[in-house]
Amino acid sequence: MQTRKRVLVASAGMAGVREEPARRSTSPKRSGAVRNRARYTSGRVQHLLGRALTLVLALLTAAPFLWMLSGSFKTALDVYSINLWPNHPTVSSYAWVLTH
Question: For residue 76, what are the contacts with CB-CB under 8 A and spacing of at least 6?
Fold first, then answer.
């Protein structure tokens, strides 16, 4: 059985409602469960990508501060080493700043 839809007709001197056959979609029909699962999956992927991007940006923002903090515990010769944490941490730079 073909479904029909009502269409409002408004033309010069004529106004009314007529019924026309409903047009069929050219896209393939998917069941509601498949459609909902696809929407859920794409939303979940977008959420995870957003979280991953936020984490990367947070690490890029925090890296210079961590580098400065680790450099403050290094000796003058160790400052130019690539190690994040010094081999022999010292607080001599803090003592020098507070006394001068």
Answer: none
At a CB cut-off of 8 Å and minimum separation 6, what does 98 contact? none
DSSP 10-39: EETTEEEEEEEEPPPPSSPP--HHHHHHHH
> Tokens 């994040």 — which residue?
84
- Hey, how many other C-beta atoms are within 10 angstroms of the C-beta on 78? 16
In angstroms, the CA 5 to CA 46 distance is 38
> Is pLDDT of 23 > 80?
no
List, for residues 26-61, the tens digit of each pLDDT value.
Answer: 666 666 666 666 666 788 889 999 999 999 999 999
Task: Evaluate whether 28 touches 37 at the Cβ level (below 8 Å).
Answer: no
- Distances from the Cα of 64 to the Cαs of 29, 36, 94, in angstroms? 53, 43, 19
pTM above 0.85, yes or no: no
